[in-house]
Amino acid sequence: MPENPMPPHPQKTPVETTSSKAAQKASLVYYLILLCCFGNFLPYIITTSVSCGAARGFIKKEAFDHLVSVRDIKKRELENFFFERRADVYQLSNNLLFKWASEAYVNSFNIGGIEGKDYKDVDRRYSTILSSFCDAYQYYDVLLLDLDGDVVCSAKKRPVLGKNILKGIYTETPLAEAFVRGKTAITIGDMKWYAIYNGPAIFVSAPIIKEGERDPFGVLILHLDDTEINNMMTQRPGLKESGETYLVGSDLFMRSDSRFTTAASEVLKMKVDTVATREALSGQTNMKIIRDYRNIKVLSAYTPLEISSGVRWALIAEIDKAEALALESGMIYRVVYMTAAMFPIWGAIIFIFHRMMKKNLF
User: Fold this and answer.
1) Which domain covers residue 307, as residue numbers?
2) Which of 228, 262, 296 is the last residue of a domain?
3) What is the pLDDT of residues 102-120, one digit of tens each?
């Protein structure tokens, strides 16, 4: 019986061969695209993202570190300033010559007032000493008061001389508060509006006690204005254009001027109710990105400042976020631009390879 012959293998037609080659070329193009995406773009994006994240963290840390440094320097300056004010009133109230002069002022005032002959003789002897002290230590005035509240001496002969601060227009003033406090201890009052002076004032007071006695016979009061404090706070080392340092009291009103102030002064006039002021006044030291009193996002470093018992201020150092992190924003923009520029470059490379394959160069 004849064997069935094996069927012949089908021969590939030229059309099938061309189609197969086209499919291979198309697959190669797809492989090339995938290679670009996963062999180039993906590692690039991952590496760049990690590097950008690390760089952003470093830039932000550097900005906050500088703010904290400025804040702490200002805090030390202010603490030293108020320490020196306490030292001034302590040394002067315990100086033997000053005690003699104070007693002479009180006695001569009680005899004939500031117009009496005895008072004028005392003032002629001692007024130059007090005025020189006032100038040397940059006080607005040095006042001596007897225990009845009479101002028996004003180093600069201010209008308060000869007045009783427990009567009339002086009764509700920070000067009267300083007198009451100064009968018992060395104290520094909060900065308050002093209408008689027509400006902010701080009063440092201390009792004056005779040698060998325990009870005071008078009160020494040093009158400070806000000028020196403002000068310290408006110095902005390395804080660029938008940086500033300022003080806020427990009533949330400024104790120093803002550098963005358009008026003559905003001390005790502008209210600053922000996260930084509330947390600093509650005793916290911290740094955050917040909205400031201008409703602008800022990097803020803040801390409480203890002026004296019962008097706390918030010390705040801030700089606009846009300026502080400008390097970070610029870096991100450059990365985005570079990434976007890579797409047309690799698109051109794929297109060239595709054309070369169509011409059977591969």
Assistant:
1) 241-322
2) 228
3) 999 999 999 999 999 999 9
